[in-house]
Design a protein that fits this description.
The complex is a heterodimer of chains A (98) and B (168).
Chain A: H1 14-20, E1 25-30, H2 37-48, H3 52-65, E2 67-73, H4 75-87, E3 91-96
Antiparallel strand pairs in A: 1-2, 1-3
Helix pairs in contact in A: 2-3
Chain B: E1 2-5, E2 11-16, H1 18-25, H2 31-34, H3 53-83, E3 86-88, E4 94-99, H4 104-121, H5 126-129, H6 140-166
Antiparallel strand pairs in B: 1-2, 2-4, 3-4
Helix pairs in contact in B: 3-4, 4-6
Classes of the chains: A alpha+beta (98), B alpha+beta (168).
């Protein structure tokens, strides 16, 4: 893709966080050299309904660290998010939380 | 080339040089047909770990065909807009392209798909795409790099216009 606080679970809204504490699946977005930074931030805002600041924070994390955890929770919802991210052509994967 | 909002609210690119007009027309090509290797990038795996084997198979059978169909539909919208491009006669003929805001997602997706397929096909690195490397237009690779950068410019114009419209 042409520092941030801990993203993902720790960054989630309170209600979402408490609901997801014991659920082990993470949605991870990986860097690629082609997707535009502004495009990635727009996709995050569209899919997760984030503020511009939060979307840009995760976008920068993808860009600088190579990956960002953008969501954590149940597997079914995680698969749904990965599918949505793929529909916008972002490199996203599902991972089990360690 | 000039980018602006037209009176009817459409996104308008005007005074498009014939060479750039040709590059725009190339957006309508089927990336799976033209860049079969590079197009593998358009349908990535949902995960690499061993315990996701069932999900990978399910993805291949059910999700990826749906995604490909979605990309084809978006490309069809773009093709229709390209077919409506207007040519202005003159010493150097130029083209005008109008895109309805309702079509902007189709454009962003289609441009992105083609850029990703081109970049994968030619193994472009972050350094190649940084804009600091000169494009050698006498080679297929150089021409592809120019295409990727030109399409990125179109994407940036649309993204900025969408951002301005949302007023956020």
């Amino acid at each position: 893709m042409q520092g941030m606080n801990q993203p993902g679970l720790l960054d989630a809204p309170e209600a979402e966080l408490s609901e997801n504490l014991d659920l082990p699946w993470l949605v991870v977005v990986h860097n690629d050299p082609v997707n535009l930074m502004s495009y990635v931030a727009m996709v995050f805002r569209r899919i997760f309904g984030w503020t511009r600041e939060r979307a840009e924070r995760h976008m920068m994390e993808v860009h600088t660290k190579g990956r960002s955890v953008v969501w954590g929770g149940g597997r079914e919802q995680a698969e749904h998010y990965v599918q949505q991210l793929h529909s916008f052509l972002l490199l996203a994967t599902l991972e089990k939380s360690s | 080339m000039i980018f602006e909002r037209s009176k009817n609210g459409n996104f308008r690119f005007s005074r498009i040089h014939p060479l750039l007009g040709e590059l725009l027309q190339a957006i309508a090509i089927d990336p799976w047909e033209r860049y079969p290797e590079g197009s593998m990038r358009l349908l990535p795996s949902p995960g690499q770990s061993e315990d996701l084997e069932d999900l990978r198979l399910d993805w291949q059978d059910h999700v990826q065909p749906g995604l490909r169909h979605h990309f084809d539909l978006e490309r069809a919208v773009v093709s229709e807009d390209l077919a409506c491009m207007i040519q202005r006669k003159g010493k150097i003929p130029s083209w005008t392209l109008e895109i309805s805001p309702d079509h902007s997602d189709a454009w962003l997706t289609t441009l992105n798909a083609l850029r990703l397929a081109l970049a994968e096909e030619h193994r472009f690195t972050e350094k190649d795409l940084s804009g600091k490397m000169p494009s050698d237009l006498e080679t297929e690779r150089g021409l592809a790099l120019m295409q990727v950068n030109f399409y990125a410019f179109i994407q940036e114009c649309l993204l900025q216009a969408i951002e301005d419209e949302s007023g956020v």
